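Lab notes, practical 5.
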Amino acid sequence: MSIPEPVNDQNFQEKVLQSDLPVVVDFWAEWCSPCKLIAPILEEIAQEYDGKLKVAKLDVDHNPGTAMAYGVMSIPTLILFKNGEPVERLVGYMPKPRLLSRITPHLE
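Output from the prediction step:
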């Protein structure tokens, strides 16, 4: 069973950019209400797509370097990385079907 994995500025390269699987990174913060709404959806996706997709969470308050490097201006921002490159960016809360419609085409 897979769960969203916390990542930070120090291990982002290893855990996300060098991953064999596509990785959805949730740029979030503790005080962000929409971030709290999307968190259970990402937990479901992590379980349902275990072995095909990794889900990672990066707290922007504690890891500003990575957030700035990828131009994250508002949260939640989800960026899908494939082969170390950002291939999809989703900003704000969205329901699970809409999230999956943007993520799953990159999993083939």
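Observations recorded by the TA: The longest strand covers residues 85-91. The chain has one domain: 5-101.
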